[in-house]
Amino acid sequence: MDRELLLELKEFLTERMVDNMSTKDLEEYVSNDLFNYFDKLGEHEFIEEARNYWDDSYDEVVEEIKDYMKCDFKKGVGK
To answer: Do 51 and 58 form a contact (C-beta atoms < 8 A)?
Structure first.
């Protein structure tokens, strides 16, 4: 199989698989893919991504996450 045919086959398979995924499956796939992408970044690169995404709200988001980490819901009741 030549390279051009192989690439077309890959594109076609990708298209078919995506077409047959539910919205929930797509969301899960994208979430996992993004988390893996972020997890492979260095700390500074990740923080830059987060700052770019949240822009002026970045500091507020970090504070919200800190509060969430302290809540009973996050820690689990009885722990």
So the answer is: yes
